[in-house]
Amino acid sequence: MIVHDVVVVGGGLAGLRAALEASEKVDVAVVSKVHPLRSHTCVATGALHFPPAPNEPKEMYIYETVKGSDYMADQDAVEVLADGAEVEIPWLESWGVVFTRDKSGEVLRASPGGMTTRTGIIVSSQWARELVMALQEQLWKRGVTFYNEWFATSLLVGDGVCRGLTAIDIRTGDFHVIRSKAVILATGGYGWVYVRTTNSSICTGDGAAMAYRAGVPLKDMEFVQFHPTTLYPRGTLISETARVIGGRLVNSEGERFMKRYAPSFMELAPRDVVSQAMQTEINEGRGIEGKYIGLDLTHLKIEELEKFIGETNIPISFFRRRLGEFAEIAWTFARVDIREEPIPVVPGQHFCMGGVKTNTWTETCIKGLFAAGECACVSVHGANREGANALTECVVFGKRAGVRAAEYAKKEELKPAPKEIVKREEERIYRLLKRESGEVRVPELRGRLRNVMWEKVGLFRSEEGLTEALKQIRKLKESYAEVYVEDHGKVFNDSLVSALELGNMLDVAEATVIAALTRKETRGAHYRVDYPHRNYRNWTKHILIHYHPKGPVVSYEDVVITRFKPEERRY
Amino acid sequence: MARVKLRVFRFNPELDGEPHYDDYDLEVDENTTVLDALLYVKENVDGTLTFRSSCRMGQCGSCAVRINKRAGLACKTYVHEVAKDGVVLVEPLDHLPVIKDLVVNLDQFFESIKAVRPWRIPASVGGEVGGMPKIPADELEKMIENKQCILCAACYSDCNVVDVDRSFVGPAALVEACRFICDPLDSHDGRLRELVDLGLFKCPVDQECEVACPRRIDIRRGVVEYLRTRSVEEGIGPLPQHKGMVECVLNTGGSVPIVETPATELYPEYVKTFEGEPQDEVVLYLGCIINRRLQGTAKAIIEILQRNRVAVHLPKGQVCCGSPFMRTGQRAVMKPFVTRNFNIFNEYAERGVEKVLTSCSGCNSTFRKDYPKLAEEYGIPIKFEIYDVGEYMAKKIKINTRDLHAVNVSLMYHYPCHIMASGLEEEIYLNLLEKIPGVELVRVPKSGWCCGGGGGVRAAYPELADKLAARRIEIAEEFGVKGLVTNCPFCILQFRRVLELKREKGEEVGFQLYDFYELFANSYRGT
Q1: Which of B179, B175, B164, B218 is nearest to B200 (CA)?
Q2: Best of B40, B43, B57 to disrupt the A interface by mutation (most A CBs within 10 Å)?
Q3: Alpha-carbon radius of gyration of chain A
Q4: Which residues of B touch A102 (CB under 8 A)?
Q5: What digits encode the pLDDT tens for the residues A31-43?
Q6: Does B144 sit within 8 Å of A103, measured CB to CB?
Q7: Is B199 on the interface with A (CB under 8 A)?
Q8: Can you give the three-state secondary structure of B78-134, one letter per residue?
Q9: Rg of chain B on CA atoms, in Å
Q10: Contacting residues for A243 by C-beta, under 8 A, at least 6 apart
Q11: Which of these is catalytic: A17, A38, A248, A271?
Q12: Which residues, in sequence order, are CB contacts of B506 under 8 Å at separation 6+?
């Protein structure tokens, strides 16, 4: 019998931050389907926001985040984000993170794409792994319990109260019940449902799906961010920093086409604007070789940079390292020498603004169940997330989850795990291994899902396409009920895990399509070719998707507006 | 498109008593990575094939496996670039228990990391409360380099010391420790001393870890030698045996005492025993070990050069190249020796003899990699060119094969780590060996480059050095190989010692050790 006060599911930045916080007060354990140092956070660029910037009001960061969200962010949450970041960021440096310093030795500040506020900072190694590593190190020092390579399969909820979860120890194949007073979901996004994504194959929306099936609504699911610059054709992320340091986007005519879409911000317009612009160029026949856009760094020769950098506060070593990373990625994954030719890029899925609905204290409608990070939707990002705000969200709301969950666990009694639910869950899982043969296998279903999501629920959506997507996903769900898993073993049965992940993917994908069908306007990252304009008056409200055995149910919730009224965004 | 056979290690603890290998025939093109191939097999051929992967972009470290015996990330390795005779061998990381197929249990690896206390120890009391102080940007560079580690464990898999001694913390742990020691916000208190106890001086600097590292961390010079230098600066290192070695250089000009007449005194300064004009003129730098312990090798090299009509200058004043100082952190006292060598070589270069040949691989890699920076530091120009003798034979002259007699031996070539470090490919020496008639060259898939003779390990941890050398012979014997040839004096002494130890124990030793140059010289002599 495994019992803890608080269990955190997910070992990325939000999860580890929550665990560290809660471990101050109560007994915490982390359950992660991969070793935390393999979490998807580790492959992101380690940029965060640290408001306020000197000589700037904090309000500027708040405004630009809200504007960037196309006025769908809940403004009280953004204020919490800003206040939280101000206080939380310095702690990261006490725990082992070191932020890049500028020429004067102060923490280097810059504006990420889409913003002019200089609240952007970056870890010295430039990889977000540094953040996860620092927290993992502190947790090692504290001796917090980790259940690594344990796959959480369901939440145990009864009478509106969370009592723990069920999980498979992947190494042994054993099924476990973990009882706890509180559960914090920090399982990340679900970008793997798209065939072209910067996400890792582990980003399958497990926490969101579990919460959804347990009765927590999913919020803002239609808002999926497409990052402008993913390497063609592999989908490897080329970080926004490539454009921040001066990279240019060119079409087949050699034109810097962003001047037609965002004349002021150009390549540094928000991601939804740039992605849609690039895809439009390709769709209208101006893609290079008909397929991609060029990200040109050839003019960023180090010798010339010396002159340019002389005028800024950024040390040359920062550029060398950044360019070195891009050079490595472009050469390794596309055999392109960035000094000689532009990098072939296309937009690709990158981040999920939508997720488990929580309040600003990460609480869900189920007592004892909390969610933070990409898997949650507070919402701080609304319809489009600005650069560096994902990690900031993880730090601020990861901490808040740790605080609230610990407070809750201290007050509450441990409740029994509902035996019936446990039994049914065990059957659900092992039924997948009972089939001796079958027509339909996980890779096929998964491939079809990922393709239909990309083709019909991608950058440009329409009633027709979305309806077709929904139809196909429902067919896939029917096939899933009969899916065959070849590996019937217990030890490290990653095929079983993949099968369970696919179930989660299908649920969150379905919710995404329904939300996209429901929102009949274009907003942020959600582009409806049949409703190409913003409709702030009627659609400044969140779409919530509720699980129901007969099919998902839609409801609405107003966006919280405190300071900034919605208005047309210009860049 | 090309056809390739993917040969994959399989082991299912529930079904198999022993591991076995499964072959999969695949069509690949120039964009297919090993991970692509594995995923293809899993999704289309055998769904039970199990391996880890996640980000597919070389950053998470999940997919670290051994490919053709060398550890690396499957997502960054291209099948067509690594296939040998159309086969790519994929195996789980070494030195860690296999859970299933290519999945290993990394607990021990993470324990090795935890052994160096990899968490920030705040530099000042009250430093717990983050102040984000001002730090000069360049003070962070070293730390930043070592923060690039993704803990994929490829280095741990390829580490020769871990191979023979599982208590060694391994390269990644040293990188992590270095990261904190270079972190201006960390107190460093006790870290270096702790690291010396954990085996900082056990590393023979063979650099197999560096070759495996997907983040290209400069483990040898940037971490191991750097930390050793720091430990000497702080009075914690070096180990007493290393002090002795350096004292020998300071007193006698070489890293080992003179016992027999050094080779430099067996010849005049200028050696030309053949008639007619030489085809070339070179300076021969022997290095301490060959000069003072392996005079036979020196004689062999001079003979080879004479047989190829190359006149040889043997500077009497040549002194230690300085490598023992640099590998054990004692850089501060080596300047007089290094500058003496610079001056000798420059003088010859000014007289028109620009080529300096080294017979010792350690000297070669020191001249090539360390000397340019030292020249800059000391303000001395470099007017000479460095070659390894074998490299010179292969690339700068058309070697005289006419006078090579048959030598009927079957052997493998041991590729010395310092030859690799000099940027000289194994093929150079394999091709030379193939020129000797009668030599049967056996290619062993991966024997490892470490004989235990490097990095001061022989002096400070002789048992470990012996184990490292013995392992090379053990692996050779597993492949049915009965002889080994190599072109590094440290390797020769190490292997010689191991074979002697075996004889002392009364073991039957059918294994033969050959010096590369003596083999050639014997072939010329017809002996």
Answers
A1: B175
A2: B57
A3: 23
A4: 137
A5: 999 999 999 999 9
A6: no
A7: no
A8: EHHHHCECCEEEEECCCCCCEEECCEECCHHHHHHHHCCCCCCCECCCCCCCCCCCC
A9: 25
A10: A113, A228, A229, A249, A267, A268, A295
A11: A271
A12: none
Nearest-CB residue to B137 (from A95, A101, A490) = A101
pLDDT at A289 over 90: yes
Contact B119 A315 (CB under 8 A): no
What's the token pair of residue A400? Answer: 């808040």
- Decide if B380 touches A, using CB distance below 8 A: no
pLDDT bucket at A417, cuts 50 / 70 / 90: very high
Which tokens belong to A463?
């009633």
- Reply yes or no on whether the pLDDT at B460 is more than 60: yes
Q: pLDDT confidence of B444, banded at 50, 70, 90?
A: confident
pLDDT of A516 reads 98
Question: What does the DSSP assignment read for A501-554?
Answer: HHHHHHHHHHHHHHHHHH--S-BTTBEETTB-S--HHHH-EEEEEE--TTS-EE
Whole-angstrom Cα distance, residue A243 to residue A299?
12
Interface of B with A in 436-475 (CB under 8 A): none
What residues contact A233, with CB distance under 8 A and at least 6 apart? Answer: none
Encoded amino acid at A414, one letter: L
pLDDT of residue B27: 96
CA-nearest residue of chain A to B15?
A489
At B56-65, the pLDDT tens digits run 999 999 999 9
Residue with tokens 């058309």: B398
The half-sphere exposure of A83 on its side-chain side, counting CA atoms within 13 A, is 8
Main-chain phi, psi angles of A314, to 5 degrees: -90, 125
A570 band by pLDDT with thresholds 50, 70 and 90: confident
Q: Residue A299 and residue A389: Cα distance in Å, rounded? A: 29
Tell me the average pLDDT across A200-207. 98
> Which residues in chain A have Cβ-Cβ distances shorter than 8 Å to B130?
89-94
pLDDT digits (tens, 9 = 90+) for A468-491: 999 999 999 999 999 999 999 999
Q: A-contacting residues of B 119-178, CB under 8 Å?
A: 119-120, 122, 127-132, 134-138, 140-141, 143-144, 147-148, 150-151
Ramachandran region, residue A347 (left: φ > 0; alpha: ψ -120 to 50; beta: rest): beta
For residue A232, give the amino acid letter: Y
Please tell me the pTM assigned to this model.
0.95
Pairing type for strands A218-219 and A355-357 reads: antiparallel
pLDDT in tens, B399-414: 999 999 999 999 999 9
SS3 state of residue B454: coil
Say which residues have a Cβ less than 8 Å from residue A384's Cβ, sequence separation at least 6: A68, A69, A70, A223, A225, A270, A271, A272, A353, A524, A525
Residue with tokens 């109560």: A26
Q: What is the DSSP-derived secondary structure letter of residue B236?
A: S
Give A262→chain B minimum CA distance, Å: 31
CB atoms within 10 A of CB B25: 10
Cross-chain residue pair B54–A102, CB shorter than 8 Å: no
Tell me how far apart the alpha carbons of residues A340 and A274 are, in angstroms, rounded to a whole number.
Answer: 24
Of B97, B244, B430, the C-alpha closest to A492 is B97
The answer to whether the Cβ–Cβ distance between A171 and B99 falls below 8 Å is: yes
Helices (H), A368-417: 389-411
> Is residue B70 classed as helix, strand or coil in its secondary structure?
strand
Structure tokens at A152: 């959480």
Q: Answer whether residue A48 shows pLDDT above 70.
A: yes
Beta bridge partners of A553: A546
- Give the pLDDT mean for B137-152: 95
Identify the band that residue A438 occupies on the pLDDT scale cut at 50, 70 and 90: confident
Whole-angstrom CA distances from B104 to B50, B62, B162, B288, B497 are 11, 11, 16, 44, 35
